[in-house]
Amino acid sequence: MSARRPRAAIRTAVALVLLALMLFPVYWMLNISLQPSGNTLSGTFFPTDPTLAGYRTALQDQGRNLVTSLLVASGTVVVTLLVSTPCAYALAQFRFRWISWALLALLISQMIPGIVIANALYTLYERLGVLNSVPGLIVANAANAIPFGILILRSFMLGVPPSIVEAARVDGAGPIRSLVSVVVPISRNALITVGLFAFLFAWSDFIFALTLTTKGTVVPVTLGIYTYLGAHVDNWSAVMATAVLACIPAVILLVVAQKYIAAGATGGAVK
Amino acid sequence: MTKTTSPASARSTGRRGEEITKILFVVPAAVAIVVLFGYPVVKNLVMSFQDYTLATFFTGEAPWVGLQNFATVVGDALFTKALVNTALFTAGSIAGQFAIGLALALFFHRNFPLNRVVRALFLLPWLMPLIVGSAAWRAVLEQDSGILNVTLERLGIIDSPVPWLASSDVALVSVILVNIWLGIPFNLTLLYSGLQDIPEELYEAAALDGATGWRSFRYITWPNLREVVGIVLMLGVIYTLKVIDIILGLSHGGPATATETIATQSYERSFVEFKFGQGAALSNILIVISLAFAILYLRATRRRIDE
Q1: Which positions in chain B touch A26 (Cβ < 8 Å)?
Q2: How confident is the model at residue B9 (pLDDT cuts 50, 70, 90)?
Q3: Which of these, B15, B21, B13, B16, lies nearest to B2 by C-alpha position?
Q4: Which residues of chain A are within 8 Å of residue B279 when distances are taken between CB atoms?
Q5: b (16+ CB within 10 A) / e for A145-173
Q6: CA torsion angle for B183, B185, B191, B192 (degrees, to 10)?
Q7: Per-residue pLDDT tens for B259-282?
Q8: So what's the ipTM on this one?
Q9: Could B111 and A8 be called an inter-chain contact, meaning their C-beta atoms sit closer than 8 Å?
Q10: N or C, which end of chain A has less CB nearby within 10 Å?
């Protein structure tokens, strides 16, 4: 035991060095965001004279876009959960003859490149007049999240003992009641996982933001950062401050919901 | 299945109602899949045989042109370049992500203090929006004042700044390196959970037979990890083929055409040049390539799904 302890300590040290290397670009983003603005980057490793000027500019320029992203991501969570929960339940608990085909379709759908969906949705949205709209972006982002949601929820719901559902049925609950009052509460963790990932997918979306908005009236923050970056950057601290703000959901997720991330990452194919 | 105590007639109407409810459970998802995946795939296929341009939105006309769009995009000198870049980008990214991800997974498979916390923090780059990762790297790789060049110059390793994203010789390598960085967490997470699933007894038995270190990796770890490895590689390939965000954010496909791939070309034909027919033709080519890998992937996962 005593011979092992120094070895473990060395491993921890190595792990921390590797982590520092891995997260250096993220640290650098934070560092630059706190430095005075300008079109040249600072070479100092620590913001000795920190300023929030970058964040002030960022919130002025991109505050609205952060709100847009928040609306799109929240809407995507709602749509994804409403659509995928009943379907996952049906695929897990009922016997359909075509079930393996449905699962195959879900798997293949996750492989369709985003640009294919964007191409077709652009022409459809143009005709329906929903380009440059939050609902339009919500529906497009649901494309990423629904197949993932169904697969994760189904694999969880397969583990729900049929006897629990049947007990509810004996008490006179119909399929909808037994879903809402029995299966949903049991599946809470899986639902949270799917909700969190749906949020993250939509928050991180760039392709739909880029292609399904044209006028600059509705601009998710990812597109805002992209436009900010342009060919030449005038105000690095504002760009980096926006990037840091756009990381907040990911950081919150890491801190408060780590076990759900592991569940989502190993339960299905992500990104 | 149902345990109702009601009379037979009521049961049959109840059953029919229930059958309908069961179908209704699936309908919203089925509609979503058809509209968001079925329609786009069919629409892309149709568009790729049409002269579908900006004018189409005003006139409503998209004349059939047969294979003209395919001939145009494949005949373009840029196509070969984009195809080669796609292959290099995918192969380079996957090789790097997998090698580093596996090394880290093996490292974290051992016990040491803070293991869980550090492993969780490794996921951060993966959870951030890709465009944020691109932005961070733009700051690091910036030619004149970026910290990488500044540091290399301070250390005397280079005399003049390396044009990481500004030279057509280096840009593709830079883009691949950034994509490797972004892919490490995914590989680490899946491979780590694969390692966790290998029963400890196998290692103990092997150790009794004298297999430790490299031999235990070769004869125990690798064979038992192979299924997970297959899945990780296939998913990695399929995701990497369709990457657009990272390339647009870092180099915008440039300088000139140095980092153009099939996916970025498809985007540009459709949404920059507004030649939707040609963009669709390219994205169909991309689908065919992905599908080839998807078939491999499905064969690898079939067993897992059937369980």
Answers
A1: 124-125, 128, 136
A2: very low
A3: B15
A4: 115, 119
A5: bbbbbbbbbbbbbeebeeeebeebbeeeb
A6: 170
A7: 999 999 999 999 999 999 999 999
A8: 0.89
A9: yes
A10: N
- In terms of CA atoms, which chain A residue is nearest residue B3? A170
Could A40 and B145 be called an inter-chain contact, meaning their C-beta atoms sit closer than 8 Å? yes
Residue B186, token pair as written in the block: 């995914």
Q: Cβ contacts (< 8 Å) between A271 and chain B: which residues?
A: 126, 186, 239
On chain A, the residues whose CB falls within 8 A of the CB of B108 are: 15
Cβ–Cβ below 8 Å for A89 and B138: no
DSSP chain B: -----S-HHHHHHHHHHHHHHHHHHHHHHHHHHIIIIIHHHHHHHHHTTB--BHHHHHH----B-TTHHHHHHHHSHHHHHHHHHHHHHHHHHHHHHHHHHHHHHHHHTS--TTHHHHHHHTTHHHHS-HHHHHHHHHHHH-TTT-HHHHHHHHTTS-SS---TTTSTTTHHHHHHHHHHHHHHHHHHHHHHHHHHTS-HHHHHHHHHTT--HHHHIIIIIHHHHHHHHHHHHHHHHHHHHT--HHHHHHTTT-STTTT--HHHHHHHHHHTS-BHHHHHHHHHHHHHHHHHHHHHHHHHHHHHHH-
Nearest-Cα residue of chain B relative to residue A150: B29
Phi, psi of B118 (to 5 degrees): -65, -40
pLDDT confidence of residue B20? 83
A83-97, A199-213, B256-270, range with the lowest pLDDT: A83-97
**pLDDT at A201 (0 to 100):** 92
Q: Which of A19, A204, A239 is opposite residue B129, by nearest beta carbon?
A: A204
Domain spanning A62-267: CATH 1.10.3720.10: yes
Residue B13 tokens, joined:
């109407």
The predicted model scores a pTM of: 0.88
Interface contact flag, A121 B40, Cβ < 8 Å: yes
Where exactly are the structural domains of chain A? 62-267
